[in-house]
Known about the structure:
Blueprint: H1 5-8, E1 11-14, H2 16-31, E2 42-46, H3 55-59, E3 63-68, E4 82-83, E5 86-87, H4 103-110, E6 116-121, H5 127-133, E7 136-139, E8 155-160, H6 163-183, E9 217-220, H7 231-247, E10 251-252, H8 265-272, H9 279-296, E11 301-305, H10 328-332, E12 336-343, E13 349-356, H11 361-374
Amino acid sequence: MERADPVLCAFIEVWGEEALRRAREVDARVGAGERLPLAGVPIGVKGRHGLRAADPLLAAGCVAVGATSVPGPGTAWQTWGLGRYGRTVNPWRHDRTPGGSSAGSAAAVAAGLVPLATGSDGAGSVRIPAAWCGVVGLKAGNGRPPSTDRTGLMAPGVLARSAEDVAAYWAVVSGAEREAVTVAGTATATGGGADTDGMDTDGTDPDGPPGEYDAPTAEWSPDLGFDSPDPDVVAVAHAAAVRLAEAGALRLVRPRAPLRLDDPAPAWLALRTPGADPAPAHRIRAANDRRLSAFFSGARLLLTPTAPTSPHGHEGPGERYSTALTWAFNLSGHPAISIPAGFGPDGCPVGLQVVAAHGREELLLDVARAAEVHDGGGGPGDPGGPGSLWTGTCVRI
């Protein structure tokens, strides 16, 4: 971090001495016989106030080493993060943005400064940086776990270099959620940081005996029926979807009719604008909810490009919304994940967005892990074998 961050500007603050103190506390807890599923894992937390959202991870033994960058005052939210040394750059191309608003978290994970960093996603703020920095980014279903966002659009999320690390995050966070429900007296669960030990959150072994993986059905949509993403981005994401199907990670099925959602932009902006008339937003949300409910009654997964464009430069995105393909699922509350799909002609990563029905985060993780297994272990810094989703390596600072 000392060597790389003056270039990347991924952190607002680095907590060196505090991290060492916390690490010693983790050592003491382990030495006393406490079982910590993520003992000693160094993490970045989004923004100066990110420690509270990271409470379940800290309780599981993670050590927060710093606050990652977010857009600064007067900085357009679509554009870049502002770290302690300046604007945050994309580790793949320093003349491009890492995306926002979880900019520093994505850049720090992509460059290998931390294996995992927290994020929050109100319109795509985890998935877009994950796509543009070539890492895995999960947006949990809205309300799982709870968010303090008054509009209900914001959901917690995480960025990591592998699906297995994201699964470890989710096991802990969803375990904390079950514990909270138990304390409230509305359910019975063991709660507490879940012990992953290679097991899925439902107690099954995701690797299992050969041939036991049940490939879920999936439908491809390049544009959700309203957007016009760049053809190069669509081609890379679609090719990744086809490779996943060929590898047995999912089963692509032809839609009975193309999915056509209403553009969520007016609804999202109205809900975020104090004093705006919410009626149009409610109409758009209700119409899209009906269409998505019908969609997931016939297929288990929806596949799209994560972002409609490649990472833009630091001057800003112009008139185009990088959120065009993501914020529909903040309105609907569906869980979604961005996984690396490959690279565009500009050498920047492209993400494949995978969306599942409400409450099916584990299905997204199953598919992401199956993709990495069939991909030969590919991921940032590991091009994998023939047919890999990855065709390049992130340049280290």
